[in-house]
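Figure 3 (text version): structure tokens given as input.
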């Protein structure tokens, strides 16, 4: 029994809404479908790069989860993607940050215009995750985030490659350290599968943050885009949304100040992207949470950097996945008293309960994720620097 008020029934129920229902019938809805909660599966989808090329396929599996057990009536709707790596260093990059807000706006427009009762948002490339989380916070109707997943790393001899290596290889070529043929080989091998940039760059950072905020299923940030577990998480995200609707859980119940503190703690422990600061500030603004640079500074000072992930460390997201993913980092932080385990998550359980129930692989992990007592650095991966200006009157 879904506990939230179904705004879809105000749009599609009753005699006077017959024209609206007629259009749902035109897309294959039965009377029974019309009577169920209307769910949007928002896919940030584009063929213009590898990061989000597969999200429509994931949407099919999310819909399966939404329908499971007679749950809801799902419809896929799109939003845009601006590919950061393709825009980087060009005027294309001018469109990158603004695309985040366009994503939030297009989700708001579609979800409100069609009176959806809840939505699952599927993201990938850098700005898609924060844009989707902003929309979730702004609309405050039940919502679950699903990440499309990282690309697998490439290989060149013994070197494990990410897209970063192509940028580095250009420098090496221009400095006369490698040949044009070597650069060409690195270019061909750097990003061998679909999915996002393989290191702890902005896309993977924001995926980890969605999990740390409690808006994505535990463990769903790290499996590669090519992993069969992506399908599992897609189905489970649909199921989780229906569960959240039944429990009446809304994004602002989850994205509290304490949840943002947890997200910043994970960001600092994992050496995530500096871009996460501006994205978290924007998401917090939409959630009505007052977050400032002081929060990042304070949390950075108390949080050790423990995950050796590129570009700061040695490993990629797929390596982290093999040893326990983001929950492994979170469990270590929780045990050290650095994470608030009492916060509610989209599963309807607290963060602590989620981590206790999580099935960790029994494999060595110290080379990738260290204990808090033996960190890579005693402070967080990002430091807030301040400049003090003195106005001199001549
Ligand atoms: Fe899309 Fe890096 S360019 S994740």
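Below: residues designed for each position.
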């Amino acid at each position: 029994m879904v506990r939230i008020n179904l705004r879809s029934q105000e749009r599609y129920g009753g005699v006077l809404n017959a024209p609206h229902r007629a259009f749902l019938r035109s897309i294959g809805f039965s009377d029974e479908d019309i009577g169920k909660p209307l769910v949007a599966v928002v896919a940030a989808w584009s063929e213009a790069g590898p990061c989000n090329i597969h999200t429509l396929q994931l949407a099919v599996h999310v819909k399966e989860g939404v329908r499971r057990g007679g749950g809801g009536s799902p419809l896929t709707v799109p939003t845009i993607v601006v590919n950061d790596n393709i825009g980087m260093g060009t005027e294309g990059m001018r469109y990158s940050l603004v695309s985040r807000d366009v994503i939030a706006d297009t989700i708001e427009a579609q979800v409100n215009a069609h009176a959806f009762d809840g939505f699952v948002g599927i993201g990938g490339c850098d700005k898609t995750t924060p844009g989707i989380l902003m929309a979730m916070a702004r609309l405050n109707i039940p919502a679950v985030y699903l990440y499309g997943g990282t690309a697998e790393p490439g290989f060149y001899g013994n070197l494990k490659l990410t897209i970063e290596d192509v940028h580095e290889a250009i420098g090496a070529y221009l400095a006369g350290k490698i040949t044009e043929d070597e650069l060409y080989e690195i270019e061909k091998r750097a990003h061998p599968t679909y999915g996002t940039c393989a290191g702890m760059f902005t896309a993977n950072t924001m995926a980890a943050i969605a999990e740390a905020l409690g808006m994505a299923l535990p463990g769903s940030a790290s499996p590669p885009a090519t992993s069969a577990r992506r399908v599992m998480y897609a189905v489970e995200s649909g199921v989780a949304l229906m569960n959240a609707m039944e429990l009446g859980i809304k994004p602002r119940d989850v994205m509290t100040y304490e949840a943002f503190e947890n997200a910043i703690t994970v960001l600092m422990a994992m050496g995530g992207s500096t871009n996460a600061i501006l994205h978290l500030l924007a998401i917090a603004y939409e959630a009505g949470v007052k977050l400032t640079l002081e929060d990042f500074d304070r949390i950075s000072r108390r949080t050790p950097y423990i995950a050796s992930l590129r570009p700061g460390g040695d490993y990629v997201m797929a390596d982290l996945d093999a040893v326990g993913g983001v929950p492994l980092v979170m469990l270590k932080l929780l045990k050290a008293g650095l994470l608030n385990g009492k916060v509610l998550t989209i599963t309807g359980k607290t963060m602590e309960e989620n981590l206790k129930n999580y099935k960790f692989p029994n494999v060595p992990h110290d080379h990738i994720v260290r204990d808090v007592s033996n960190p890579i650095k005693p402070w967080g991966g990002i430091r807030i620097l301040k400049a003090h200006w003195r106005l001199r009157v001549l």
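The first strand starts at residue 38 and ends at 44.
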